[in-house]
């Protein structure tokens, strides 16, 4: 018999966080999240809970945990997009359709009790959290900011009558491919015409004012993307503390105008997959060492975030920061870059498909249906 109960207390939360690490411990492409980060996301430490509500559930059979799920209602997103949706996230389960449906039924029950009329996912609280499941090439490389899922997740969600709401594409590409002379000349002309420049700083603290602009630029440039809602000031403050103390400044590409206003951005990080796997969710006693070492010695990067303000799109700004990133990769002898999921049809995808030597890695999707 399957029982599904809410998470209550620290012991249950620890079990909730640990479950996928046990479920996928033998999967080479699975990357465990850091427990510290998961606690900050799932407890009242998360500033998103000022406009979100959530309930966490564990599924058990014969005293053994067989699945988990988070039911999330983001009021800001629902108001912004004029809908009443409950989200499912942190959704992991053994290959058993009854476990899958028992967990989703709890999310649906939570949604209906709060007046929701549709369900969608997998999502986190915001777009900065992990979202969307792989729908092809299930054995492809993951990274620390993406969700792992086996094929049976998709088989079960389709069997339950859910439809794809939005698709994303990920790519791999040679990071050290030579920058074409034509691209370099064109970028120089664009920068001269629009009085643009790339930010160059010597000290990390000089990045912080641009970091605030960076997240506000994300709010503007991502405004029309599926289910996106602008981040709050408190959320931005948390993300700055999370991302910027550790970035390699050569892989931060900020394009600013003559008034020092950020108009385009690219942010990449070293490949931390191996370090996170060695850490097994723990910073201590040795997880921090593996992660710090990976930041210093790497030959692969993950293209984490990039975008251009709406009023600057289709002026070639994307090419400026991609080119600079490319040149940094050559200097560091980085051979491969992997993109984060990009919504199919957006400007970044068009550029990668037409101007760079990219290889499709995998597609991802979120699913939904009416309640």
Structure, explained:
This protein has 371 residues and is of the alpha+beta class. The chain folds into 2 domains: 2-168, Aminopeptidase (3-Layer(aba) Sandwich), CATH 3.40.630.30; 173-362, Aminopeptidase (3-Layer(aba) Sandwich), CATH 3.40.630. The chain has helices at residues 9-23, 35-42, 75-81, 97-113, 151-159, 181-194, 208-221, 233-243, 273-279, 287-296, 317-332, 347-355, and strands at residues 2-6, 52-61, 64-74, 85-93, 118-121, 133-134, 163-174, 197-198, 252-256, 262-270, 300-308, 336-339, 342-343, 359-370. Strands 1, 2, 3, 4, 5, 6, 7, 8, 9, 10, 11, 12, 13 and 14 form a 14-stranded mixed sheet that branches. Helix 6 (181-194) packs across helix 11 (317-332) and helix 9 packs antiparallel against helix 10 (287-296). The model has no long low-confidence stretch (mean pLDDT 92).
Write the layout of secondary structure elements.
Blueprint: E1 2-6, H1 9-23, H2 35-42, E2 52-61, E3 64-74, H3 75-81, E4 85-93, H4 97-113, E5 118-121, E6 133-134, H5 151-159, E7 163-174, H6 181-194, E8 197-198, H7 208-221, H8 233-243, E9 252-256, E10 262-270, H9 273-279, H10 287-296, E11 300-308, H11 317-332, E12 336-339, E13 342-343, H12 347-355, E14 359-370
Parallel strand pairs: 4-5, 11-12
Antiparallel strand pairs: 1-2, 2-3, 3-4, 5-14, 6-14, 7-12, 7-13, 7-14, 8-9, 9-10, 10-11
Span from first to last CA? Answer: 25 Å
Number of helical regions: 12
- Percent range for helical residues? 25-40%
Uncertain runs are none
Strand content: 25-35%
State the order of secondary-structure elements, H for helix, E for strand. EHHEEHEHEEHEHEHHEEHHEHEEHE
The dominant shape is: globular
In terms of structural class, how would the helical and strand content be classed? alpha+beta
Rg: 21 Å
What is the residue-mean pLDDT, rounded to a whole number?
92
Q: Count structural domains.
A: 2
Query: How many strands appear in the DSSP assignment?
Result: 14
What is the CATH architecture descriptor of the largest domain? 3-Layer(aba) Sandwich
Write out the CATH superfamily name of the largest domain: Gcn5-related N-acetyltransferase (GNAT)
CATH domain class of the largest domain: Alpha Beta
CATH topology grouping of the largest domain: Aminopeptidase
